[in-house]
């Protein structure tokens, strides 16, 4: 999740660690710019980051943001130093699988092509969350 989106949702950017989650695949959602991850074969993996030290209130905010198509699951991603950690991830519900495009979703593509519009959509009156840019 982009830092600006986190700042808008939970009013801060928590510490993060790069991580890899095995046994999942990240796909595009039809007609949307956001991704979905789903359980997959053990050879598949999703690269991302773990958000550290989130409060219960912040998790509640993220639960609402992620919407009914997702459920929160506890998983064990591998951090960049090779250790594993317990973390929660938002997994796309099976009942909505027909909404997936079986094409990989790229954060880099999203950032280059959709980031600014997504942040503006979440920002009241189109103002940047930091008041500058």
UniProtKB/TrEMBL annotation:
Keywords on record: Transferase
Pfam families tied to this protein: GGACT (PF06094)
Domain (Gamma-glutamylcyclotransferase AIG2-like): residue spans on this chain: 4-110
One GO MF term: transferase activity
Membership in a protein family: Belongs to the gamma-glutamylcyclotransferase family.
Function: Putative gamma-glutamylcyclotransferase.
Protein name: Putative gamma-glutamylcyclotransferase
Organism: Chlamydomonas schloesseri
